[in-house]
Amino acid sequence: MKLKQLSVFLENKHGRLRELCAVLAENGINIITLSLADTEQFGILRLIVKEHNHAKTLLEEKGFVAKLTDVIAIEVSDQPGGLSEILRIEENSGIGVEYMYAFTIKSGENAVLLFRFDDMDKAVAALQNAHLNILGSVELYQRAEG
User: Fold this and answer.
1) Is residue 111 within 8 Å of residue 78, measured between CB atoms?
2) Options 3.10.180.10, 3.30.1360.120, 3.30.2130.10, 3.60.21.10; which CATH number does 2-69 get?
3) Which residue of 51, 64, 104, 133 has the smallest Cβ count within 10 Å?
4) pLDDT in tens, 123-140
């Protein structure tokens, strides 16, 4: 149920993001979705790619600092209150959201959001208990490829 997310530390300097994207492109690795948070000095690029282990190795060989973390892709009702319902379930289970970002694809009438929780196993259990659909990597990659 958990997905591997590639997190990359980027110096906040001109061309560094393009360099990273070029490494992936030159090796045929497609970015399915991403999030970039930055400060004046650096940024953290979080991305989902199918070949996460290979991408990590390639980026490290080019001098990037990268690590793999677990995230969960959850189908969320794409209407007012959809996200609030997910957050209520997690709050009632005593779980905190570390960060989240939206996926670029939809799942039928639902949006797909990626979450990093402070207790991933407990989060999965709470969401499954609430009968919410957590997308596995195979299903997610298939949808992204259309």
Assistant:
1) yes
2) 3.30.2130.10
3) 104
4) 888 988 988 888 877 777
